[in-house]
Amino acid sequence: MSYFRKKIKCCFIGNFGVGKTSFIHSILGLSTKDVRTTLGIDFFTMTISFNNTTAYITLWDTAGSERFRSLMRSYVRDSNIVFIIYDLTDRNAMVSVVQCFRDLEHCKPEVVAVIGNKIDLKPLVTHDVYNTIKPWTRQGWNIVTGTCSARKAASTKKLFLRCLNNTVDSPKGSNVEAVPIRLIQRPVLSKKCCT
């Protein structure tokens, strides 16, 4: 039996206010109340253990504003999993999903997850996700779709683990379990030049 550590980079993209940061907080078991808007890029880490594999996962949260779009492309480039999050209550959500797929055309992620968020708000809008993503199924990407509520950790974790199982080579039937990690805050030492 060999024990190895795999690194997986996940990037979250989508329009402003769709719940990308709340989705990440839900996965990590953090509070989804009073989540602040991401400016630029935010970064989180977690470790997942299953069978003889430990996966070190980095979660890159990108800003949804148009002015940060070029910055987002540079972070998405070498991702293993890209999560396209869209708002289920937005009538024009599929326009943003198409734009995200266009941004990914020059990248080669192993898995692209198209996730509809805010299902708890009982959206009256129906989205034709299948026909929207159909042109990109020829890219050879493994595309995962689903809906969730970032307020319900069970739904976000289920989708997240489904994407991980498509990325990590694990025997069928093996369950991926999240291992809690402890964050230790260290004081920042001021460095002065030419003291």
Q: CATH top level?
A: Alpha Beta
Indicate the CATH topology.
Rossmann fold
- Taken in chain order, the helices and strands follow as EHEEHEHEHEHE
Mean pLDDT: 80
Radius of gyration, CA atoms, in whole angstroms:
18 Å
Percentage of β-strand residues: 25-35%
Largest sheet: 7 strands, mixed
The number of helical runs is: 5
What's the CATH H-level homologous superfamily? P-loop containing nucleotide triphosphate hydrolases
Specify the helix fraction band. 25-40%
The overall number of domains is 1
Distance between the termini: 54 Å
Based on DSSP secondary structure assignment, what is the total number of beta strands?
A: 7
What strand order characterises the main sheet?
A: 6-5-4-1-3-2-7
Name given to the CATH architecture? 3-Layer(aba) Sandwich
Would you identify the regions where 5 or more consecutive residues have pLDDT less than 50?
Answer: 170-175
Decide which structural class fits the backbone.
alpha/beta
Estimate the global geometry from the Cα principal axes. Answer: globular
Structure description:
The protein is α/β, with parallel strands linked by helices. The protein has a single domain, classed as Rossmann fold. It is built from five helices and seven strands. The chain has a seven-stranded mixed sheet with strand order 6-5-4-1-3-2-7, with helices on both faces. Strand 4, helix 3 and strand 5 form a beta-alpha-beta unit. Helix 1 crosses helix 5. The longest helix is centred in the last third of the chain and has 15 residues. It starts with a strand and ends in a 16-residue tail after the last strand.
